[in-house]
Amino acid sequence: MREQSASLFEDLVNLKLAKCKSVVLAAGHDAQSASNRIVYLPRNLLVHEVLAMNARSTTERYSSVSIGLHWFTLILLAAVYACMELREQYPKGSDIREALKSWHYMLGLSVFVLACVRLVFRKIGPAPRIHSLSPLQTALAKTVHLSLYVLMIAMPLLGWLALSADGKVIPFFGLELPPLVSPSKDLLEVFEDTHELIGTIGYFLIGAHALAALYHHYVKRDDTLRKMLP
Ligand code: HEM
Ligand code: HEM
């Protein structure tokens, strides 16, 4: 009975609960009809447990929260990079250049916050299995995912450290964050250089990651990209 319930849980998630037109909570029936999308749940299943399932990743696909955070982070990162690239178009000290820099800092810090939330959601549920890859390819995919997390966490921290070492204000949507270190020219150089280096590596890392996803979808025609689509 317990095993049946556990497998029903998994089947239910695979049916993409959020998209089910109707879910019938019928006490005492361990049966499910995939064709008409009516699902009968076991006797002691509470509605909030059903909803919580949708926030967890399963072994087949990412949770809707992880998927939302993934694509929102992509948009944020594009804006973070764009602000820095665009600033070059405006004279030093101009209002627009300063505004672009402030947005770079604030959106960059938002990436940090979202990355921490994502890590929590990864802990709640397992990352989906990586299918049909050799052990070497699996290790490569995991290394790239790990490096992307390092990018999302180390870059904002290095930026925060750089502004602190420069004795500048660290803005965050109307707030002022505290400096992490005392002003120091030597430290500023180290933090800025490292921030710039990882920022450049980030372009290639994100590019390679996106290309790999497209390769899996269009050439290998597997479910890698679909696992990350709403
Ligand atoms: C994921 C987040 C971030 C990414 C990908 C990123 C990326 C970059 C890039 C590509 C540059 C240009 C480097 C150059 O060619 O000069 C840059 C510059 C800079 N970033 Fe970030 N950054 C991020 C977050 C932050 C945060 C949160 C802060 C501060 C709170 C920050 C502070 C700075 C500073 C001070 C500069 C130098 C600006 C200047 O030249 O005046 N960054 N960043
Ligand atoms: C067009 C751009 C992108 C595409 C097409 C894309 C696609 C994907 C796909 C299909 C997966 C699932 C891979 C699997 O489980 O085997 C994935 C996972 C992942 N992606 Fe992306 N991605 C993009 C941009 C980004 C960006 C900008 C970041 C952050 C810097 C990022 C970070 C991650 C991470 C960390 C994972 C591992 C799962 C997780 O913990 O969320 N991706 N991506």
Topology:
Elements: H1 2-14, E1 32-33, E2 38-39, H2 47-53, H3 64-87, H4 95-124, H5 135-165, E3 170-172, E4 175-177, H6 185-220
Antiparallel strand pairs: 1-2, 3-4
Helix pairs in contact: 3-4, 4-5, 5-6
The structure holds protoporphyrin IX containing FE (2 copies).
Outline the structure in words:
The chain is mostly helical. The chain folds into two domains: 2-53, no CATH class; 64-228, Fumarate Reductase Cytochrome B subunit, CATH 1.20.950. Helices cover 61% and strands 4% of the residues. The strands form two sheets. It has a two-stranded antiparallel ribbon with strand order 1-2. Strands 3-4 form a two-stranded antiparallel sheet. It starts with a helix and ends in a 10-residue tail after the last helix. 16% of the residues are buried. The structure holds protoporphyrin IX containing FE (2 copies). One protoporphyrin IX containing FE binds at residues 66, 70, 73-74, 77, 118, 122, 127-128, 130, 141, 145, 148-149, 151-152, 206, 209-210, 213, 224-225, 227-228.
Task: Give structural attributes.
230 residues, mainly alpha, Fumarate Reductase Cytochrome B subunit, 2 domains, two-stranded antiparallel ribbon, two-stranded antiparallel sheet, elongated, disordered N terminus, binds protoporphyrin IX containing FE
